[in-house]
Write the structure tokens for this entry.
Amino acid sequence: MVMDSSKINQCVEALCGCGCEAVRATISGMELGLPVEQTNSLDDTERAAVLSELKAIMSVYDDRA
């Protein structure tokens, strides 16, 4: 199966638009296997890609702190 990078990017952008604290909460929830509404239309591989991308984005902010 081929991942839909546009769906992944749209999901990441929507989640990031909610702010840093919301993204951190989303990362924690996804790591625990909790459902995240914005990722409902994604398969497991795409969800993993979203989680990886969110972690990469937040690492930039966390390195500044």
Observations:
- The mean pLDDT is 92.
- Residues 44-64 form the longest helix (21 residues).
